[in-house]
């Protein structure tokens, strides 16, 4: 009987030990579960915060992109308007002759701004009195013949290069007088002659 009691006692002890171990394991599992759950909750909060930051960043990028598109559209519209205006001006100017510069002295400026315009005005005034001047041309020719005769009489002792220079000037002067007294010569041609003969010679022939 005593032996049977001891066996029963041992069995009860083993059952108690097993129950204690089971309770301990259950408690450890619960503690571990709480730790894992806390970790997961903390991780979820971090992800939610990161998500909010990313959403704000994307919204800022969207605003910047919208502004960029607006500026680009404005710039393209301005360029298109400028190009259309330039084409319209070009079409408007088609068929018109652009100024090639001054016809008096071949300068880059317009004729009305030419520094030799006064000389051209004198030539135009001379052109108006061409008919009157033509009547005196015969007398001028006779005077030229007298000048040549007198020149031949005084050439003695004068250097040759001086005679050549005087001779060239006399020829140019004759050409200028003939041109001045010829009614059919336009002011343009007179201006061209003036640019070649020089202002001094041209004005001397007008005196």
TrEMBL record:
Residues 121-130, 136-153 have a biased composition (Acidic residues). Residues 117-160 are annotated as: Disordered. It comes from the Eukaryota. Residues 37-71 form a coiled coil. Keywords: Coiled coil. The keyword Coiled coil applies. This is Uncharacterized protein. It comes from Thalictrum thalictroides. The lineage of its organism: Eukaryota, Viridiplantae, Streptophyta, Embryophyta, Tracheophyta.
């Amino acid at each position: 009987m005593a032996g049977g009691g001891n066996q029963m006692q041992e069995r009860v002890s083993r059952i108690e030990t097993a129950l204690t171990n089971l309770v301990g394991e259950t408690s450890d599992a619960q503690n571990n579960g709480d730790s894992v759950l806390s970790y997961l909750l903390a991780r979820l909060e971090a992800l939610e915060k990161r998500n909010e930051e990313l959403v704000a960043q994307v919204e800022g990028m969207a605003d910047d992109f919208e502004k960029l598109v607006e500026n680009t559209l404005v710039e393209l519209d301005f360029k298109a308007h400028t190009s259309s205006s330039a084409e319209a001006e070009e079409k408007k100017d088609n068929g018109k002759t652009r100024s090639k510069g001054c016809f008096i002295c071949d300068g880059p400026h317009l004729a009305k701004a030419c520094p030799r315009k006064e000389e051209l005005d004198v030539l135009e005034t001379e052109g108006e009195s061409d008919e009157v001047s033509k009547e005196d041309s015969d007398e001028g020719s006779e005077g030229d013949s007298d000048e040549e005769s007198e020149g031949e009489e005084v050439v003695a002792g004068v250097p040759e290069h001086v005679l050549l220079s005087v001779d060239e000037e006399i020829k140019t002067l004759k050409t200028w007088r003939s041109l001045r007294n010829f009614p059919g010569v336009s002011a343009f041609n007179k201006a061209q002659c003036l640019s070649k003969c020089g202002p001094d010679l041209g004005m001397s022939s007008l005196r």
